[in-house]
Write a structure and sequence with these properties.
Distance between the termini: 68 Å
Structural class: alpha/beta
Helix content: 40-55%
Largest sheet: 4 strands, parallel
Shape: globular
Radius of gyration: 22 Å
Strand order of the largest sheet: 2-1-3-4
Bound molecules: zinc ion
Order of helices and strands: HEHEHEHEEEHHEHEHEHEH
């Protein structure tokens, strides 16, 4: 094969150009797949996103590896949920030597209180002032430092309400723009597009769930990840594990839920992509209620699955929930 000098020159230019171009991308680390997708959507071609807890992974119980620490040390931006979800993040930041822009994606959202005391978790006694009202996002500037570590007195799953997702998007836009002001206009425009899509999904889900009779809007899942979703669409979720997958359901919790399913004729029973299905299988056997599939709670699916993006997660979960409520 003869190669023309021009081709050789072009190939050399490509080899030289590629690393330079890659190095210009803003290195972003996101703690879990939902935040990774938001960061990728907002950042577009300007960012290179690494997600610590990948598809189908559990951010509550994650154990970072030395390569995670190395990646974070080299990153310009860290996107974390906050609200005590990532109990491991403080130590990872320290170990990594990370000096970049730290984005708390849920900042500005008033957290829901954890409603686990009925289930008999001794550690949470005294919290029976559970807050049922959903606060509007954006009002409340106080920080959540008190909830760092393993405190579960707030529910961290705020991303499950698409209106809160808009707050997440705005916080990511602000963080990327602070780290990379030259592309701030692009981040703002891409953020507005994603926010408009989240607002459209919210309007559609409100209309669809409103058509389901209230008595049918009851769902059993394995851990309590859907408090914000429930508040947004008037659905009652019942879960044997608390708000974190770190705690295991007690026999009394499971018995209580089985009694409730029978007494209230609950027809929708769902596994989650991040949790062991055995407990749900047991509940299904003892109540003769069929499991309606898996909901995506704390992680997206792999790219070829049904919920590979934050937007598709809402669409997938809503379709599965509506089918179970309407079919039961
Ligand atoms: Zn969770």
């Amino acid at each position: 094969m003869k190669s023309s000098p021009w081709l050789i020159a072009a190939a050399l230019a490509l080899v030289v150009a590629l690393p330079a171009e890659a190095a210009e991308k803003l290195k972003v680390v996101a703690t879990f797949s939902i935040l990774g997708d938001i960061a990728s959507e907002v950042g577009g071609d300007h960012v290179e996103v690494r997600t610590l807890v990948g598809p189908d992974g559990d951010a509550h119980t994650f154990e970072p590896s030395p390569s995670d620490a190395k990646a974070l040390g080299a990153a310009a931006v860290l996107v974390e949920n906050g609200m005590g979800l990532e109990g491991w993040i403080g130590r990872l930041v320290t170990v990594s030597g990370f000096k970049g822009e730290r984005v708390e994606a849920s900042k500005g959202i008033k957290p829901l209180a954890w409603k686990g005391e009925e289930a008999g978790h001794d550690a949470h006694e005294g919290h029976d002032h559970a807050e049922k009202d959903h606060a509007e996002a954006g009002h409340d500037g106080h920080d959540h430092d008190a909830h760092e570590g393993h405190s579960h007195d707030v529910d961290p799953h705020a991303w499950q309400d698409p209106k809160n997702g808009i707050v997440y998007v705005n916080n990511v836009v602000a963080g990327l723009s602070a780290a990379d002001p030259a592309n701030a206009g692009d981040y703002k425009a891409r953020g507005e597009t994603l926010s408009a899509e989240l607002a459209a999904i919210d309007a559609r889900l409100k209309a669809e769930f409103a058509k389901v009779p209230e008595a049918k809007r009851k769902i059993v899942t394995s851990h309590d990840a859907f408090g914000y979703f429930a508040n947004a669409y008037g659905i009652q979720f019942v879960a044997p594990e608390g708000v974190s997958t770190e705690s295991e359901a007690s026999a009394a919790d499971v018995a209580r839920i089985i009694r409730q399913i029978k007494a209230e004729n609950i027809t929708a029973l769902f596994a989650e992509n991040i949790t062991d299905p055995r407990l749900l299988n047991q509940i299904a056997r003892e109540t003769n209620v069929k499991i309606g599939g898996a909901l995506y709670s704390d992680a997206l699916s792999p790219p070829d699955g049904p919920a590979p993006t934050y937007l598709r997660m809402f669409e997938n979960n809503a379709a599965a929930l509506l089918a179970a409520m309407n079919g039961g």
